[in-house]
């Protein structure tokens, strides 16, 4: 069986008025199907850029990427049929109702009008928006918009689901709801690729994770492996938290610089 | 194809839910019609002005108002909003051609423009304007004006998609503005001053205006009509 996500030497250079940015500088990924994969990194590390490339919304400057076995550059429509994506900024149409948006999205994936109506109904129940379904999205709260965005990423029962910071801005209860949702989706066989700023989220949800910093992957493995590796390296008596793994990997602590000095 | 209609229906829904954006499209051109006719009608009394073919001056001015209302291109601003707001990306993540998104908006534009042109003509009828070419001519007139609206909106949407900026899109619509006025707007082309006549002859919009006008004043004048439709088709080609 082919990998759910496979990236080889992926790069992205933005060239624009404001100068050149090397947002992603050679990333390799190999994510087997069925996993929840966490993609972590500080602000500006290149997470969203990677998601946009893998979801065919942006061209690659170099490298190749296949999602659900399909090449993102040679067959973008093939990829789009097999994936769902909820971007970091939930882009929704404020003048439609939640239900209309989901029906439209399902229709664009080729469902008939009646199938699309049924699918929209199921998804509204899934994300608990049935009550607000026929109100205009303009009046939705931030959390409601995020949940609707998540629902819209599921209309085509994707093989691989990309979620760019799905829980940013959610209250703790909604966050747990989304976690449950991600687990349920994953149990049904969907591979989930999610980015997050919350290390607890990665700890809770992810089978494997990678940390990206400055456009390069600085470490990857299961959360437990990463913690164990750090513990072995620092020789500390207690198991480090994922926060510490993150800080260490992205060079954002004094402990790390002290460590560097000791190694010299 | 099917997707374009699905998207088109959504764009029509969007227009119906923002009636405040539609109202100026109808009333600003009608305002110009009333003011222009009110100020100049005495110069052009219907009996003694051959180019009016026995009708009043409002009948001569109506085509200009119809074309003005067909040239608001507000749909392009919705497109910019959609690109900036990120919903465009959600549509782009579906397996449809990017052109289908534009085509959907153009389809909505056609429906909207047909409705608006029909309403404007109906508002004008009680003021003594007759459509000399009859009911069929009314239909042809509305279709011609609506096709121009689609062409104009097509240009605007291309600009919107290239620049991704509301300011640039609005600016571009101002570039089109002279095209509407460098036309035989107040008198037929042969009565214009020489420079204006040259400008109007070079301006494709003139021929659409003349075609619409011929339907109102002279019945079916096939060469003029043909030219009007030809211009719309050629301009719509790309
Ligand atoms: N459209 C763009 N044009 C130019 N530079 C961009 C563009 N989008 C992102 N960048 C730059 O690319 C780098 C990576 O951005 P990206 O959005 O991928 O980061 P991120 O990891 O998602 O950050 P965050 O956690 O803040 O969402 C940043 O330096 C950013 O400024
Ligand atoms: Mg991001």
Structure in words:
The complex is a heterodimer of chains A (264) and B (238). By secondary structure, chain A is an alpha/beta fold. Chain A has a single domain, classed as P-loop containing nucleotide triphosphate hydrolases (Rossmann fold). Chain A is 39% helix and 25% strand. Chain A has ten helices and ten strands. Chain A is globular. The relative contact order of chain A is 0.15. The C terminus of chain A is likely disordered. Chain B has 238 residues and is mostly helical. Chain B has one domain. Chain B is elongated and about 65 Å long. The model of chain B has no long low-confidence stretch (mean pLDDT 82).
Shape of chain A from CA axes?
globular
Shape of chain B: elongated
Strand content of chain B: under 5%
The number of helical elements of chain B comes to 11
Bound compounds: adenosine-5'-triphosphate, magnesium ion
Our measurement of the CA-to-CA distance between the termini of chain B, rounded to an integer number of angstroms, reads: 18 Å
Distance between the termini of chain A: 45 Å
> Mind describing the biggest β-sheet of chain A?
6 strands, mixed
- What sequence of helices (H) and strands (E) makes up the elements of chain A? EEEHEEHEHHHEHEHEEHHH
**Uncertain spans of chain A:** 254-264
CATH class of chain A: Alpha Beta
Helical proportion of chain B, percent range? over 70%
Reading side by side through the largest sheet of chain A, how are the strands ordered?
6-7-8-3-9-10
The portion of residues forming beta strands of chain A comes to 15-25%
The rounded Rg of chain A comes to 19 Å
């Amino acid at each position: 069986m082919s990998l759910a996500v496979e990236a080889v030497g992926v790069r992205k250079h933005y060239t624009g008025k404001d100068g050149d940015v090397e947002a992603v500088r050679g990333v390799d990924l190999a994510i087997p199907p069925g996993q929840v994969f966490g993609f972590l990194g500080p602000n500006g590390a290149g997470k969203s850029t990677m998601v946009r490339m893998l979801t065919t919304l942006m061209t690659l400057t170099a490298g190749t990427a296949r999602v659900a076995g399909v090449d993102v550059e040679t067959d973008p429509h093939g990829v789009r049929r097999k994936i769902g994506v909820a971007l970091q900024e939930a882009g929704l149409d404020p003048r439609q109702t939640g239900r209309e948006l989901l029906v439209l999205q399902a229709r664009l994936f080729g469902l008939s009008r009646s199938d699309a109506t049924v699918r929209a109904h199921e998804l509204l129940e899934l994300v608990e928006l049935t009550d607000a379904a026929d109100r205009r999205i303009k009046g939705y709260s931030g959390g409601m918009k995020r949940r609707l965005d998540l629902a819209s990423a599921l209309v085509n029962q994707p093989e691989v689901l990309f979620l760019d910071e799905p829980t940013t801005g959610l209250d703790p209860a909604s966050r747990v709801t989304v976690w449950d949702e991600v687990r349920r989706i994953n149990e049904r066989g969907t591979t989930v690729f999610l980015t997050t700023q919350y290390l607890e989220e990665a700890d809770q949800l992810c089978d494997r994770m990678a940390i990206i910093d400055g456009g390069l992957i600085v470490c990857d493995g299961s959360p437990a492996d990463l913690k164990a590796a750090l513990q072995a390296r620092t020789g500390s008596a207690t198991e480090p938290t994922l926060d510490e793994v993150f800080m260490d990997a992205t060079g954002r602590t004094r402990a790390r610089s002290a460590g560097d000095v000791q190694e010299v | 194809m099917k997707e374009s209609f699905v998207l088109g229906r959504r764009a029509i829904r969007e227009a119906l839910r923002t009636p405040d954006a539609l109202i100026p499209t109808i009333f600003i051109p009608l305002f110009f019609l009333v003011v222009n006719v009110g100020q100049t009608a005495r110069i052009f009394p219907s009996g003694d002005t051959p180019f009016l073919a026995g009708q009043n001056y409002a009948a001569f001015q109506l085509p200009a108002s119809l074309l003005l209302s067909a040239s608001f291109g507000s749909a392009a601003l919705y497109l910019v909003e959609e690109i900036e707001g990120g919903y465009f990306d959600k549509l782009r993540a579906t397996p449809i051609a990017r052109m289908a998104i534009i085509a959907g908006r153009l389809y909505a534009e056609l429906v909207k423009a047909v409705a608006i042109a029909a309403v404007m003509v109906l508002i004008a009828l009680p003021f003594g304007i007759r459509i000399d070419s009859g009911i069929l001519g009314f239909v042809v007139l509305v279709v011609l004006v609506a096709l121009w609206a689609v062409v104009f909106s097509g240009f605007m949407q291309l600009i919107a998609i290239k620049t991704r900026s509301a300011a640039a899109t609005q600016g571009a619509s101002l570039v089109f503005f002279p095209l509407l006025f460098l036309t035989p707007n107040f008198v037929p082309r042969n009565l214009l001053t020489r420079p204006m006549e040259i400008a109007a002859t070079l301006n494709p919009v003139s021929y659409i205006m003349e075609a619409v006008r011929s339907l109102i004043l002279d019945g079916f004048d096939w060469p003029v009509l043909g030219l009007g439709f030809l211009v719309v088709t050629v301009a719509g080609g790309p």
